[in-house]
Amino acid sequence: MPPAPELPWLVVTTVGTREDAVALAHALVEARLAACAQIEAIDSVYRWQGAVHAEPEFRVLFKTVAQRYAEVEAAIRARHPYELPAIHALPTAAAEPAYAAWLNENASGAER
Fold first, then answer.
1. C-beta of residue 8 within 8 angstroms of C-beta of residue 103
2. Tell me, what's the pLDDT at 10?
């Protein structure tokens, strides 16, 4: 029996434009750092440089594996338009095995 695939990690960031979100999503999926990226419009309220701001943003959710996190973070940071990007990861507790296997194959960082 083959070993169980590694459980997915969800890496999240936000950007100010749909164009930036799409560019990040394509860059990381094309580099096989993430198997998938989802983009959604959100409203953000945050404190920055002493003032409270409320602005529309786009959340990008990358689906990857734990062993790729450092590379995913570096790739996001290198392309991110913000001075201080929010980049955080959430491990999953469970995943459908066939989906997890697909994700592992497609977040491997190399063509197969």
1. yes
2. 98
